[in-house]
Each structure stands twice: as structure tokens, then as C-alpha cells.
């Protein structure tokens, strides 16, 4: 489903990624861990097509990712550090705008369903500039899954979410995972990944240092121990 081969990214004299090769199968749910500055978000942006690698290739469904390949891009839902929403618009207006960009016909039912799913039905016509950070994040999550993508790329999606919203988000990831959506999630929330991830990738200093399949018996403490060994050397 997703394949990155020997991805290297340099910015000036600084090497952000070095020879990162990963293959992620259809329907896998993968957590991406690592300290700040490890290259996680850069790698995810390259997979999403938002930036280009200095060298290396990205393939989606076996086809090399090319500039302006809109059919391949439509397979992807991306949530980054920016919401990509317009704060003068309401949740409904934002989602209608993106539905139009994706060429969705009669998206009203899907939008209503998502607004209820993110529990913003009482605020759906209010401008986002009046929202809390968590409310904006929930709207951004709805934007990412609006067009029912086959691949969902999430960069620290728990930002701004309270405990109730985190619980809702975990259930949503489990649901789309069961539907066969490929999920790749950069996160620092270890307790949120154990129940919804099949696999963990760990980055350090621009290198992929661990690619571990999670078995049913893996616990939160087990994931933390794996992380500590790879990142902290303990």
C-alpha cells in the first residue's frame, strides 16, 4: 500500500532523514514514535506528497508517487500540525469546501454524520475562530476522513484533545482500521496506540531504528521499554 525506498531529506547542510525504507501493507495500523526532531513528521509529509525527498522514492499501491497525481492523492487523508481549516468558516462550511475539492457529490449526509461523530452538532454553524483548540482539532479530524480515504496519515492527532475526545478518537481509529483503512500515526501518546496499532516504527536522528510488529500480548510497559532501548539506550 505504502512503500518508501531509501528516503533521504536534506535541508541545507542538515540531514533530516537518511535512507528510510518502509513498506506498509493495506489495512495496517502503524504508530510512528521518536523524540522531537527525529524526522517522523518529515517522513509523513513526504508520504503525503506535501514535500519532496532529496532522494529516494515513494509508491502508493505499487505506483510511484508523482507530482499532480490527483487520483493517488485522493486516496490519502492527512492531518498535520496545521488544521488546514478556515477560521472564519463554520465546521459545515469547511467540510463543504473540502467536499467540493474532492469532487464529492451530495456530501450533506456524510457531513452531518461527521459533525455528530465529533460531537459538534450544536456548534456546526459557528465560526472556528470562536472554538477551543480541541474543537478545531476534532473538525480537522473530520476533514481528514471526510472523503473516506484508503490511507489515513496522522501527525500527533491527540493535540488539544481532552480525555473524552481521546477516547472517541481511539474508537474512531479502531473503527476505520476494521474497515480496512491503512492508518499511519505519529504520536507521543503511548497509551493511545497499544489497542489500535499493529506495528511500531521508531525514528532517531533521521534513521529508522526499529520496525516492530505488535503482538496481542504487548502491553503499554512493553512499548515504553522498546522505545527506551532504541531512543534512550536504556
Automatic annotation (TrEMBL):
GO terms for molecular function: ATP binding; ATP hydrolysis activity; transmembrane transporter activity. One of its GO terms (biological process) is cytochrome complex assembly. Signal peptide: none annotated. PROSITE patterns: ABC_TRANSPORTER_2. Keywords: ATP-binding, Cytochrome c-type biogenesis, Nucleotide-binding, Transport. Transmembrane segments: none annotated. Gene3D superfamilies: P-loop containing nucleotide triphosphate hydrolases (3.40.50.300). InterPro entries: AAA+_ATPase, ABC_transporter-like_ATP-bd, ABC_transporter_ATP-binding, ABC_transptr_haem_export_CcmA, P-loop_NTPase. Residues 2-230 form the ABC transporter domain. PANTHER family: ABC TRANSPORTER ATP-BINDING PROTEIN, ABC TRANSPORTER ATP-BINDING PROTEIN NATA. Belongs to the ABC transporter superfamily. This is Heme exporter protein CcmA. It comes from Bacillus selenitireducens (strain ATCC 700615 / DSM 15326 / MLS10).
Amino acid at each position: 500500500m505504502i512503500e518508501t525506498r531509501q528516503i533521504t531529506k536534506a535541508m541545507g547542510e542538515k540531514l533530516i532523514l537518511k535512507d528510510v525504507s518502509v513498506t506498509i501493507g493495506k489495512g495496517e495500523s502503524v504508530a510512528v514514535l521518536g523524540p522531537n526532531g527525529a524526522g517522523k513528521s518529515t517522513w509523513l509529509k513526504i508520504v503525503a506528497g506535501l514535500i519532496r525527498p532529496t532522494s529516494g522514492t515513494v509508491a502508493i499501491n505499487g505506483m510511484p508517487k508523482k507530482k499532480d497525481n490527483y487520483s493517488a492523492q485522493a486516496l490519502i487523508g492527512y492531518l498535520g500540525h496545521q488544521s488546514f481549516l478556515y477560521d472564519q468558516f463554520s465546521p459545515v462550511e469547511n467540510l463543504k469546501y473540502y467536499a467540493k475539492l474532492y469532487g464529492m457529490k451530495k456530501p450533506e449526509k456524510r457531513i452531518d454524520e461527521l459533525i455528530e461523530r465529533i460531537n459538534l452538532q450544536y456548534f456546526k454553524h459557528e465560526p472556528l475562530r470562536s472554538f477551543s483548540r480541541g474543537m478545531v482539532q476534532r473538525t480537522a479530524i473530520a476533514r481528514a476522513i471526510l472523503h473516506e480515504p484508503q490511507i489515513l496519515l496522522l501527525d500527533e492527532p491527540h493535540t488539544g484533545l481532552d480525555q473524552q475526545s481521546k477516547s472517541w478518537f481511539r474508537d474512531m481509529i479502531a473503527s476505520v482500521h476494521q474497515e480496512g483503512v491503512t492508518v499511519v500515526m505519529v504520536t507521543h501518546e503511548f497509551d493511545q496506540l497499544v489497542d489500535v496499532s499493529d506495528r511500531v516504527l521508531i525514528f532517531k536522528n533521521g534513521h529508522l531504528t526499529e520496525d516492530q510488529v505488535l503482538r496481542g500480548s504487548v502491553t503499554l510497559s512493553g512499548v515504553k521499554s522498546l522505545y527506551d532501548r532504541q531512543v534512550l539506550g536504556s
